[in-house]
Each structure stands twice: as structure tokens, then as C-alpha cells.
Design a protein that fits this description.
This protein has 546 residues and is α+β, with helices and mostly antiparallel strands. The chain has helices spanning 2-67, 72-86, 154-171, 173-187, 191-194, 197-209, 271-278, 280-340, 347-382, 394-409, 431-447, 506-517, and strands at residues 92-102, 105-118, 123-132, 218-222, 248-251, 263-267, 389-393, 415-421, 426-430, 454-461, 465-472, 520-526, 530-538. A hairpin with a 3-residue loop joins strand 10 and strand 11. Helix 1 packs across helix 6.
Length: 546
């Protein structure tokens, strides 16, 4: 039976370890999936930034193609005309380039001089204005406005700038023509012209350096049909062999609805290594936890095996020891009988020897009973105890045991009260086990009673069970000791006082018999008031070992 229990424990232990590993593996897979989703989200966010920066950079490049066009001659003509309109009676106007330090930076300005001659008075007047050279229109894309460093001509300069800009962007026909021509050129641009692979790689590198993403990557640009564009000049990270299905994808020109869509495909070759690295802390904790649990389970299993081995050695030792004790006990018993024989000793010596012989017989008998109890306990532990079921009358067994117990308590003026309720008290069980069970309960009630034992025994028969309760008004048992009183060799601690003799085997034997038959036993006790043991005999239960 115990071998079967050990095998079951081993199987359950193996299943537990396997389930633990499966659970931890499942959790790691879930964590990997969550990290993968998080990684994809971060990559798409980065791709949005890359597409935005690249598109704005390309728009700026297109605008600069227009802005960088040389229209200085037309600009100066417009500037002179607007200067005449703002200041009347001007006969000659000249424009000269100059440079001025503004906020620590060198900037281009124009000095506009206007001369007027009054024929009546013969006076010549000259007026100067310092105006911003708006031919550097590219600065307008980078700066908001600059204070003019000449207080006398500040208002006039601002007006000139505004008027000239209006003239250039509203009235200059060549700018409109250039815009139309740029639009036409843009429509017929090839993908290689629209995208600079080197510049795109720099944008990708810059964005990835600001993100918590792998720094090693490969990319490609493809059209709407999934064909990868080949560039004459391309960086090492550009690859035409990419499997586009495994890449993250973004439209390079999301705001351009007129031109052909071009897509950026970004691939990270060390994606899995990066995700596993992100899981490093959780992975280490999981591995340590699994290792610790496995070590604990293995240690526990080894401890169980060692305890089982020690228990077997102890049982074998007890069994051998008790068998060896039987021989000297029998020899002592025979010697006592021989000494009690009148023919063995002279009559004058018999009166002197008789008390000692009687004492030896009593102690030898007591020793024999203790050895039998130990041997019986060892037999139960080995699972070799047998049962010979037969029909018994519980009421008759109790009455016989009470009759025997009354001889023990007569000298102490004790009493045993027996009450039974019911008509039939028949039970099928092993007679020796039932007698020993009830005898142990009555014996405990006598041993742990006070000076005058007062024991009450109640036997009740209901429809299915017999309920036998044995109560005493003795010293009682503390609550913390109640769960342990059925353990083998356990005795309630009393310090160095041992008023009650025994080995702590009686209640352990009672518990073992009840478990084998499927009976129930419980105890109720109050310290200083006594204890009550209740056994429920199930009439339909059978001996489990048969």
C-alpha cells in the first residue's frame, strides 16, 4: 500500500513539475507576444515620423527650386517703382547691396537712394532707405522676421518689403509660370528622382537613434505593385532582396494624393534577439523560480525517500527487538512458575521468596503486554495486519470490558456507568480489533481520571451506525494537543512528571483500526473537566485491506 502511495506521489510530483514548466512556458509565450505587439507599435510610430520628416524635406526641396530662381533684376525694378509711389517727386533712384550684422549674424540688405531737384528753389534733396534683400527668400522658411536697424527708415522699409513681396508673388508672371512648370516636372518625376536613398537612410538613422529600437536595419522602397526600386546610389542598408511580407510598411508621401504612392519597407534582422533582450529580466526571474521550485521538489522527494527508509529500518528494528524480547520474557515466566512450585524450594524459604516471585511475574506480565503492543503497532505500520470478520454484539463486548475494568477501579472507589439505546447492536468486524479498540478507550479514561474515576459509556444505535462514547471527568486535554493525540508515540507533555504509564500507542492503534474500517473517531475535551471519545461504527463498511 505504501509503495503504491510512493509511486502515486512520484507521478504527481512529475506531473506537477511538468505542469509548472508548461505554465511558465505559456506565460513566456504570452509575454513574447505582448513584447512583439509593443515592438510593432513602436516601429509604426517611428515610421510615421520618418515619413513626415521625409515628405516635409522633399517639399522644402521643391520650394527651394522655385525660390532659388534668379529674379534679382525684376525685383529691383519692382522695388524702384514702389519706392517712387511711396515718396513723391523722385527723379533718380539707385539701389546698392550692403551687409548688416543683426543679432550677431551677417544679413543682406539693400540701400535705396532717391534724389529730387526743386527747380524753383534750386534745392536738391536725397533720402535713403535700408530694406531687407528679399531675394534671399529661403530665409523666410527659417525665420519669422528681423527688426530693421535704422530707426529713421524703419516704417518705410517695412512698407517697401510688404509692397515688393506683394508685387512679386501677385503680379510677377514668371513665378506663376515657374510654379506650373515645377508641377509639370513633378508629375513626370521617376521614383529615383522623387526619393534620395542616401537622404532617406539618414532620416531613418536619425529617428532610430531617438527611439528604443534596434539600430541594425535594412530598408527598401517599393511602388504600389510591390516592385522594389533600384537606385544607382544607395547606402549599404538598402536591400533589393528583402521579403516585404516580413517588413514594416509606410507611405513615404502620405499627403500627396496626385502622385504614385511609394512605400518604405523597414526590416530589423535582430528583431527576435531584441525582444528576448527586453524579456531578459522576466526570463531570468522565471528560470530562477522554476529552478528553485524543482530543487525544492527534488529535495522534498529525497527527504520522503530517506524518511521512508528510516521508517522501514525503525519498523524492522522494533519488530526484531520485540521478537527477541519474547524469548527472555517467556524464560522469566517459566522461572517464576518453577520458583512457585512447592517442590522446588523448602517450605521455610517459600514464604520469603513468594513476594519477590509475584513481583517478578507482575512486571514480566506488564513487559509482555508492552512488547505485544509495540509488535502490534509495527505490524500495522507494515500493513501486514489481517482481519477475520465475524458477527459481533457490541453491547456484550462493552459489558465484558466494563466488568474487567471494575476490578481495577474498586480500590479507588471508582464507578463506570453504561447506558445503551436501541435494540440490535450487531456488527460485522474482527473481534480482536473491536475489543482492543474499546479496551484502549476505557483504559485511557481510567488512567487519566482523577483520584476517583467516574466513567460514563453511552452506546446508541440509529438506522445506519453505532455511536459509542466514552467520557471521563479527569484532567482533560488542552486544545493545542488535541490534533496530535492520535499520533504514534505521542504523549501530552507533563514536564518531568510521569504519573501515567504508557508508550503513546493506544490511541494510535485505535485511529489505525478506525481508518482501516472507515469508521470515524473524534474527541471533545476541556482542561480540568474531562474528555469524551466518540466512535461511529458504520455497519456497512468493510476492512480495506481484504
Amino acid at each position: 500500500m505504501k509503495k503504491l502511495r510512493l509511486s502515486v506521489a512520484t507521478i504527481l510530483l512529475a506531473i506537477s513539475v511538468l505542469c509548472l514548466l508548461l505554465i511558465q512556458a505559456f506565460q513566456m509565450i504570452q509575454l513574447y507576444d505582448r513584447k512583439t505587439i509593443q515592438f510593432k507599435h513602436s516601429v509604426h510610430t517611428c515610421l510615421d515620423k520618418i515619413a513626415f520628416r521625409h515628405e516635409k524635406a522633399e517639399d522644402f526641396r521643391r520650394y527651394m527650386q522655385i525660390v532659388n530662381h534668379d529674379f534679382s533684376g525684376h525685383y529691383k525694378d519692382v522695388l524702384k517703382q514702389e519706392f517712387k509711389n511711396l515718396i513723391s517727386a523722385q527723379e533718380s533712384i539707385s539701389i546698392q547691396d550692403t551687409s548688416v550684422f543683426v543679432n550677431g549674424e551677417m544679413e543682406n540688405y539693400l540701400v535705396i537712394r532717391g534724389k529730387a531737384f526743386d527747380s524753383i528753389s534750386g534745392v536738391t534733396a536725397e533720402q535713403k532707405v535700408l530694406a531687407r534683400d528679399v531675394r534671399e527668400i529661403r530665409d523666410l522658411f527659417q525665420k519669422q522676421g528681423v527688426n530693421i536697424p535704422t530707426s529713421d527708415s524703419a516704417r518705410l522699409s517695412v512698407q517697401l518689403n510688404q509692397k515688393v513681396l506683394q508685387q512679386i508673388f501677385k503680379k510677377a508672371k514668371f513665378i506663376n509660370e515657374m510654379m506650373i512648370q515645377a508641377f509639370k516636372d513633378n508629375i513626370y518625376e521617376t521614383p529615383q528622382t522623387r526619393v534620395d536613398a542616401i537622404f532617406l537612410d539618414s532620416v531613418i538613422h536619425m529617428e532610430l537613434s531617438n527611439e528604443d529600437l534596434p539600430k541594425e536595419y535594412h530598408f527598401a522602397v517599393a511602388n504600389e505593385f510591390g516592385s522594389i526600386i533600384d537606385f544607382k546610389v544607395k547606402p549599404d542598408s538598402y536591400s533589393k532582396e528583402l521579403n516585404l511580407k516580413n517588413c514594416a510598411k509606410i507611405n513615404l508621401f502620405p499627403s500627396n494624393s496626385l502622385d504614385e504612392n511609394l512605400y518604405l519597407f523597414l526590416y530589423f534582422p535582430k528583431k527576435n534577439a531584441y525582444i528576448i533582450k527586453e524579456m531578459k529580466a522576466s526570463f531570468i526571474v522565471t528560470i530562477l523560480l522554476v529552478v528553485m521550485i524543482i530543487i525544492a521538489l527534488v529535495f522534498m522527494f529525497r527527504t520522503i525517500l530517506e524518511q521512508k527508509k528510516l521508517s522501514e529500518i525503525k519498523r524492522d528494528f522494533i519488530s526484531n527487538m520485540t521478537h527477541e524480547f519474547k524469548t527472555p520474557i517467556s524464560t522469566i515466566s517459566l522461572a517464576c512458575e518453577a520458583l512457585g512450585d512447592k517442590d522446588m524450594l523448602p517450605s521455610s524459604e517459600q514464604s520469603t521468596v513468594a513476594p519477590f516471585v509475584k513481583m517478578i511475574q507482575q512486571e514480566n506480565k506488564r513487559l509482555e503486554l508492552l512488547v505485544e503492543s509495540i509488535l502490534h503497532s509495527a505490524v500495522i505500520d507494515k500493513g501486514e495486519i489481517k482481519a477475520n470478520p465475524e458477527k459481533l454484539n457490541i453491547k456484550e463486548i462493552v459489558e465484558n470490558l466494563i466488568l474487567n475494568a471494575q476490578f481495577r477501579i474498586q480500590s479507588m472507589n471508582g464507578s463506570i456507568n453504561f447506558i445503551y439505546q436501541g435494540d440490535s447492536f450487531e456488527l460485522t468486524a474482527d473481534k480482536m480489533h473491536v475489543i482492543n479498540l474499546i479496551a484502549n478507550l476505557i483504559d485511557n479514561a481510567i488512567k487519566y481520571s482523577k483520584e476517583t474515576p467516574e466513567i460514563n459509556i453511552l452506546l446508541v444505535h440509529d438506522t445506519k451506525n453505532f455511536n459509542l462514547s466514552v467520557s471521563d471527568k479527569g484532567i482533560g486535554i488542552k486544545k493545542e494537543y488535541l490534533p496530535k493525540i492520535f499520533d504514534k508515540l505521542y504523549r501530552i507533555p507533563t514536564g518531568n512528571v510521569h504519573n501515567v504509564k504508557g508508550f503513546g500507542l493506544g490511541l494510535s492503534y485505535v485511529k489505525s483500526i478506525c481508518e482501516e474500517y472507515g469508521w470515524n473517531i473524534e474527541v471533545q475535551s476541556q482542561i480540568g473537566e474531562g474528555s469524551t471519545f466518540i466512535v461511529t461504527f458504520n455497519t456497512k463498511s468493510k476492512w480495506k485491506r481484504n
